[in-house]
Design goal:
The complex is a heterodimer of chains A (190) and B (236). By secondary structure, chain A is mainly alpha-helical. Chain A is built from nine helices and no strands. The chains are: A mainly alpha (190), B mainly alpha (236). At the A-B interface, α2, α4, α7 and α9 of A face α2, α4, α8 and α9 of B.
Chain lengths: 190, 236
């Protein structure tokens, strides 16, 4: 039950983009079409799940054991950058179809603050590796849901008659704001 | 104009990171529920930015070109850790309000952006001044946005009651959704007055790219959007 709770809270109640404001760049930048948005969301899901497992194992079994907890920011960012490169190479060699689907999005994710954010929240909340992975899955599912919904709305908005002043990014931000309002309704679930 | 003063002017007004370059949007939206926390976040980022610009500029001839980005990240992450520990020790309230967003300064695109586009090519002192300018510009941006949100959402300015308590504040503005609305308002004003900003680049036929073709300031995430434009061009 506790595990389901973590999933729901991290995916819906404190949604990573709409209430934590992490990963805004891809959220606003790659949400023009549902297809690319899904690709980005899937890539984020993959990377965050793997990186929360690796960083959490590293923290519990190496950094904490050696009393080097304060080095976590430096270690995590390097591990994430290396991990993304590594995942890209492995996918290219062994799972070509998956690589073709996610490949272009992978290098972009290193600069995504959500990945580092999840790794650090896991440490802050004192999650063990299993809970960390679940939290990672939940958060990236939340990202996937949010970016796909936004892309869907933007596709429809494309041909609408929008006031001239709101064309471009203002209308996207207003859409995101309305989505944040809607997601605030999930607060009762916690 | 003196070249050091020019750097300050450039960071605060001409290339203001919040209003013109639109960089570092995550902290801009997340910590601006009130003016004070915006100010705190801005100053923390400024401290890191000045030191990172100075150090990276000192090291610019030592760092090999191929691994410069990881090297910059290590320098920035070290500085952020130092600042975080200092805040925890001496300014615990700031440490508590900003929380997770202090370590996340590492991935703030302003810092790596300035390192890559300015500090790696200029002398240490000039780069430090660039950091001061950009930092003040960022602090100014965050504080202004925080001020607007605090005034509308809580009726206060720097925690002083300004709007009489009898009038209900529009609470939505201090909630997450309000952050998006304030930013939408800001970009709308830029649209209306045709102000120069990253979201408001004149789109001529030549640079229909989503980022305005400004590869120097690009941090990668825009290339998907660009890829779409380029494939559309090819199809035509």
């Amino acid at each position: 039950m506790e595990y389901i709770g973590i999933l729901i809270v991290s995916a819906l109640v404190s949604n990573v983009v709409l209430s934590q404001f992490l990963g805004l760049c891809p959220f606003l930048g790659v949400s023009k079409k549902v297809e690319t948005a899904t690709g980005m969301g899937a890539a984020v899901l993959f990377v965050i799940t793997v990186s929360s497992l690796v960083t959490s194992l590293l923290y519990t079994f190496v950094l904490e054991k050696l009393n080097l907890g304060y080095l976590k920011t430096i270690v995590f960012i390097l591990v994430i950058a290396a991990l993304v490169q590594f995942v890209e190479m492995v996918l290219k060699k062994s799972m070509l179809s998956l690589y073709q689907a996610l490949g272009v999005y992978l290098p972009l994710i290193t600069t995504n603050c959500a990945v580092l954010g999840v790794a650090l929240t896991n440490v802050q909340n004192g999650y063990d590796p299993i809970k960390s992975v679940l939290n990672g899955v939940g958060i990236s599912l939340g990202f996937l849901i949010a970016i796909v919904i936004l892309a869907g709305i933007r596709e429809r908005n494309e041909y609408n008659d929008i006031p001239k002043a709101l064309k471009g990014s203002p209308i996207v931000l207003i859409t995101a704001g309305l989505m944040a309002l809607a997601f605030a309704g999930f607060a009762g679930l916690a | 104009m003196n070249k050091y003063l020019e750097r300050l002017y450039n960071g605060i007004i001409k290339e203001n990171p919040t209003f013109v370059l639109m960089l570092g949007m995550c902290p801009t939206l997340a910590v601006t529920t009130c003016a004070i926390s915006g100010l705190q976040m801005g100053l923390t980022t400024t401290a890191v930015l000045i030191m990172s610009n100075f150090l990276i500029s000192l090291l610019r001839n030592v760092i090999p070109d191929k691994i410069r980005i990881p090297a910059y990240i290590v320098v920035v992450a070290t500085l952020v850790t130092v600042v975080e520990l200092l805040l925890e020790a001496y300014l615990y309230t700031v440490f508590e309000t900003l929380g997770l967003y202090i370590p996340l300064i590492v991935v703030n695109c302003i810092i790596l952006g300035r390192a890559e586009s300015y500090a790696s090519k200029n002398t240490p002192v000039l780069s430090a001044f660039d950091g001061i300018g950009m930092g003040i510009g960022f602090t100014f941006g965050l504080t202004t946005i925080g001020l607007v949100r605090e005034l509308l959402g809580a009726g206060t300015v720097f925690n002083f009651q300004v709007i009489p308590e009898a009038i209900d504040p529009i609470k939505i503005f201090v909630q997450p959704a309000g952050a998006f609305f304030v930013l939408a308002l800001l970009t709308m004003l830029q649209n209306v007055f045709k102000l120069k900003s990253a979201t408001n680049v004149e789109k001529s036929e030549k640079d229909k790219l989503a980022c305005g073709g400004n590869c120097m300031e690009c941090h990668g995430y825009q290339c998907i959007a660009n890829k779409e434009v380029l494939t559309e061009k090819k199809d035509n």
